[in-house]
Amino acid sequence: MELKIRGDKVSFKGGDKSSEYGYMVGPSGLDVLDMACEKSKLYLFTSDYHIKSFYFYGGFPIEEENPYSNHPFNFVGEPWESVWGRKIAIRRSEEVLIVLSLKEKVKNKEKLLFYIFKMNLENCKWERIYSIGDEILIYGRGVTIPLALKDLGHGIKSDSIYFVDEDVWPDHKDWPDHKDHVSNCGVFDIATSKIKWPKKIYFSFNKNQWFVRGVAY
Q1: Which helix (H) or strand (E) holds 116?
Q2: KIB1-4 beta-propeller domain spans which residues (predicted)?
């Protein structure tokens, strides 16, 4: 079964059957914050911060048990942290990551940040991690991608998060340093928590998606 997400729809194709499209509605009536596909499975991140996983049978989603089902994600931020977005990403090992887009405000100085969490399967607690190794994460695409070269130059490197303007707090466009941005696509270095805005000549993009040259996904 091949699954693809297009906006708020899921397309699925199996065998000789032609692709079918349908809105995914939260099976328990909950709003869906985000969706991701990996290895013919569909993962939902619901508004009560649970992770649900499904496989398709006869064109219908069948829920299955997963290590995250009974352990909702709970982030309690500091007073100076404000969350803008919550997304999930599935690694090829089927490990689920939760990624927060937020801003930090300390002494009237604001900074865009991303936090990544994974579950410690021994104590079933969500813990923040500070590296994804030789992978890159494109915020909102739902997967991590191994990068053959650790550094492609001009800010394109592994252990980073790729995002567009719409993925972060909109008021950052009013910050003094925004005039120095050469594009609306940013790269967040997980190790240093610093952001670079590469020039457009190194990638192409549409309104809400990265297409990095030399990276297949």
Answers
A1: strand 109-120
A2: 30-189
CB neighbours of 94 closer than 8 A, spacing ≥ 6? 38, 39, 41
pTM of the model: 0.80
Where in the sequence of the chain do the CATH 2.40.10 domains occur?
A: 2-64
Beta pairing class for 60-64 and 51-57? antiparallel
* Dihedral sign for Cα atoms in the order 164, 166, 167, 169: positive
Long-range contacts of the stretch 15-22 (C-beta < 8 A, 24+):
17/59, 20/59
pLDDT of residue 7: 54
Do 141 and 217 meet the contact criterion of CB atoms below 8 Å apart? yes
Contact 4, 10 (CB under 8 A): yes
Q: Residue 210 and residue 33: Cα distance in Å, rounded?
A: 21
Contacts for 38 with CB less than 8 Å, ≥ 6 apart: 90, 91, 92, 94, 142, 143
| Rg of the chain on CA atoms, in Å | 18
Task: Please give the pLDDT value at position 80.
Answer: 92
For residues 162 and 205, which has the higher predicted lDDT (pLDDT)?
162
pLDDT exceeds 50 at position 211: no
Helix, strand or coil, per DSSP, at residue 122: coil
Return the structure tokens found at 137.
């994460």
